[in-house]
Each structure stands twice: as C-alpha cells, then as structure tokens.
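Reviewers of the previous submission asked for a worked example of the structure-prediction workflow described in the proposal, so we include one complete record here. The input consisted solely of the amino acid sequence. No template or homolog information was supplied to the procedure at any stage.
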Amino acid sequence: MIERPSIHAAITAALGRSRVVALLGPRQSGKTTLARQWVSVDSPNYFDLEDPVSLARLSEPMTTLRDLTGTVVIDEIQRLPELFPVLRVLADRNPLPARFLILGSASPELLRQSSESLAGRMEVIAISGLSLAEVGVSSQNHHWLRGGFPLAFLAENDADSFIWRKNFVQAVLERDIPQLGSGISAVAMQRFWAMLAHFHGQIWNAAELARSLGVNESTARRYLDLLEGVFMVRRLQPWHENMKKRQVKSPKIYFRDSGLLHQLLGIQTGSELQLHPRLGASWEGYVLEEILKSQQPDEAWFWATHAGAELDLLMMHRGKRTGVEIKRMDAPRMTASMRIALDELKLDNLLVVYPGNQRYTIAEGVEAVPFAEIATTNEEFSTR
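From that input alone, the workflow returned the following structure tokens.
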C-alpha cells in the first residue's frame, strides 16, 4: 500500500476537532483504504452502504448508531441521504460518545444534504487519486500516463491499466451518474465525455459541443455539471477584475485525472502519448492538478484576455497572489504575456513551471521552477 501521510494527518486533525468529517472524492480513489486505518471493515463501527448487510443494519439508523463509541465510518453515504438528519442529532450530543467519518463519491447530493442538516458540524476533506508526491518523482512518466487511481497506477502493465480505466469509466456512467437522478443514458454521456477529452485545457464552449452532439446548450451544460459532480472534470473559473482589457469570462475545462483523459483519447502507452496531438494539453492539465494538490491554495483561477495575454493559473493563498505559467520546454524565458500578467494582476510572484531540474531567475519577480520540485512540496513558493 502506498502511504498517504499528508491526507492521513489531515483526517486525524479533523477528527480531533470536528464532530463529523466528510472525506469526498471519486470512487476508487482510496477513501475506503484510508478510512480502514481508523476502523476495520469487520468492526461494528464500519458501514459500507453498497453492502446489503450494512444497509440492513441501518434500517433503524438511530437505534443502530446511538450506542456506538469512538470513530464511526459510513462509506458511500450519498446512497442513504436520510442518514443526515440522524447524524445531526447524534453530533449534537454532549458529551459526544462518537465522531463520524463519512465517505462520499457524489458531491452535489452530499453537500446539499450536509449543508441543510450538518451546517457548523462537519469538516470536509477533498481527495483525489495518488499524487506525484505520494508515488515519487521517479514514477512521473508512469503516473502521468496512467493517472492517480491506485488500481490503474499499480496495474501489472500499461494494457492492464488501460482496461481497468475503461471499466472504471463504464462504472461511472452506469452507477455513479444515475445515482444523481440524471435520467441521461450512459451512451449519450459516454459520447459527451469522449468528445470533452478533445477540449481538455480549452475554454468551455457549450455551443460547439452541443452542435457536435446534436443537443441544445443547456443539455451540454447539464452533462458537464454531472461529470464535475462525480469529480471527473475540473471547471477552472476565470479571474476578472475591472480592468481596461476585455477578459475571457468562460471557464477552462480539465480532466482531473490524466489516466482517464488518455483512456478516452485512446492512448495506451508512453510512446503513443509522445506522438499524440493532445500531448501539450495533457501535460498542462497534469501539471496543473499536481500543483493544486501540493500547494492547496485558498482559491485558484486562470486569466486570459481577448487580446491574447493569459496566465495558466492564478493562486490566492494567505492574501498573496502567485501566478503560474506551465511550459513544456527545456529553458523557458520571459514573454510579453508574462509581463502583462505580472503587471495587470499585481502578482506577488510568477512561477514558470517546466520539466527541467534547475531553479533559476528569469526576471525580477519571475522564476523558473522544476515541476518535480513544486509538485512534491507544500511549502509556500516565492521568488528569491
């Protein structure tokens, strides 16, 4: 098992201060493995709501849960939303005999229910698949190709990993999305998801995708909402202020896992990835996700103007503005777009992330930083 010390520490701290802790992330991302470090699967304190036995035990939830002590784990809680009011009552007891670690893989329903029933009582921890920091820099190419889902990353070979990801996509289409009450056929959603792979890293254009699918724009937006809701895609919002320049106000779309992007693009091996026309977009999305995992900013956006100036990532952390440009080149240099972003956005610093191994100054306030360095440390980066 690959250790995940930072997430483990975050859960430990959250359970120490909060009555209910929600661990949210896509299915098969390791939530259950993490939870079993607190409560074993054969413990009376462990409930898996995809297991008929656990569902039967919770047929009278108040009776079942009120006498339990210590940490109680409830996995796939979005499958039984009527538990939330019960958890509110149990979380309000004084003294508090038990704390609840709830796991969910469908965010819209879970957050809606929790905001109504558990406001002020629940702490949320979001996780994804294995990060580069967790698997090690030496596995970077392997990790980029296969993505971070543990069973995809740890498969015996690339072919087995590709087949696992294919089956995973089918499971999301046939199980997770229908749980959200979408009423959308798996075939229609699969077509949309596969088409969206070709728009990875681009500005969202509902009209273009809708025309290609033969649906209206509101339907295309609904499809995107569903994929975002099960943690498959990231909708990176644009930053815009009252500036003179006309700015892009539509979000960018990124696949949150590079392995799923490659599966839907039909990329099975590293050599196929290197020859694929979406290589640059894949690299940008992979780097962006790993930076967000390691740096954990308070907020994140991208920035672009209709005149062509742009910034791949704008992170706000503790009141500081850090800009990030992602370059897949050996020795990045200053560009006009960087100068505009540095000035217009009033950045505290601008980091140019590239695949090299030397950190160096490009200009005042601008520094080239190796991807492996920024993706594997959570220190607050600043230019020297």
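The chain has two domains: 5-126, 132-375. We consider this example representative of the routine output the project will generate in years two and three.
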